[in-house]
Amino acid sequence: MCPTIRHGAWKGAWRGLTGSEIIMLKNIPTKSVVTILAIGVLVGFAIVGSFDAFVDYTSSNEFCGTTCHEMDTVTQEYMESPLYKNNHGFRVGCADCHVPKPLFAKLWRKAKATKELYHKVMGSIDTPEKFEAKRLILARSEWQRLRESDSRECRNCHFYEAMTIETQPNTARFWHPMAMDEGYTCIDCHKGFVHRLPDLAGEIQKAAEHFEAVLAADALSEDRLYIARAAALYSGVSTEDGTIAELEPGTPLTVLERRDGWFKVRIQGRQYQTDNHTLYDIGERMVVLARAQGGSIQIGENVTRNDATGLDWRPARMEGWVSRNNVTSQIASLWDYGKAIYQNECVRCHVLFSPSDFWATEWKNKLHNMRRKAGLSAGQTEILLKYLQHHAKPQGMI
């Protein structure tokens, strides 16, 4: 009889067994039980060890860089970066940035990566041309992953607590304290450090071409139109007539008359205290619609005080003629263009704030400070500013 059967801890186990089953268990030698358990443990270790070795291998630079020719482009970029070779003699591997260290996060990352087998079979990025066409999508996916994990892989090596902020370059000395206070994450600012950035300027160009196509196809049959690009307001139906105002992109127009490719329009807005040369939007945001020359703004008498800002406003309007080449009935297409400029230009250097994070007046100051760093034309900068201002936080709201 197996001596362990006599122990009280096993008595309850016998009650549910038949006589033949009890006899069979009694006949199993103790050594056999130990052997089976030992084999089970060894097999378990072998499975776990093999799986761990497999995970480690699929996280190695060798696997990442040489298994698939689709990775040739980014591998070459990595090998030319400071993370691969530098005067300090350290090297950061592919997995250090792209594979989480916590077990469950790592396994989930590996599971999600199995979809790449499908794209391998389908040849989604099996040529340099296909890869470049998908580079922006791939980059945004990885940026989003890092953002959602609060740049976990970056923080394996970099710690705010270990930084000597006062000795950092000017830009870092400004942004790192702000990032700590506001909860920004590493990838918000640090893009394109190892792998080449996507063709963001090309994305802006595509958006510009689409916007121009919308303008060309616009019948302009509506009585409600908008300024599509900065334009002059004339006193008559010719550029030889005197200019009475400069109109900003997004300014709403009410059409009063049409003549030979020109529109006589009215711009309804408000006038701010003693500023008799600027027409502002009627809404809750201080957005400039037009800058008038002379006394072309017709100003009403009623004064309204804005409780949020403490400013006094009077209703105002102006009338004049604009060329059909500078207007659109599709205001959404103008804002789509402005959004494309914002998402593909400002993302190069820092976090993308929501337009509603700041007042319209704050956006004006921010773009003024950043314009020398941006590779935008004057027209693109104006459209970007108006997109942000028209979607900004209401003036005075905390």
Write a structural description.
- With 398 residues, this protein is α+β, with helices and mostly antiparallel strands.
- It folds into three domains: 3-57; 61-198, Multiheme cytochrome fold; 199-269 and 319-398, SH3 type barrels, CATH 2.30.30.
- The chain contains 15 helices and eleven strands.
- The chain has helices at residues 11-14, 19-26, 30-57, 61-66, 72-79, 94-98, 103-113, 115-122, 128-148, 170-182, 186-189, 200-217, 331-345, 360-370, 378-390; strands at residues 224-227, 231-234, 243-247, 252-259, 262-272, 278-280, 288-292, 298-299, 304-305, 312-323, 327-328.
- Strands 1, 4, 5, 8, 9, 10 and 11 form a seven-stranded antiparallel sheet that branches.
- A hairpin with a 6-residue loop joins strand 9 and strand 10 (312-323).
- The longest helix has 28 residues, at 30-57.
- The termini are far apart.
- The model is unreliable at 1-7 (pLDDT under 50).
- This is Cytochrome c-type protein.
- Heme 4 binds at residues 186, 189-190.
- GO terms for molecular function: electron transfer activity; heme binding; iron ion binding.
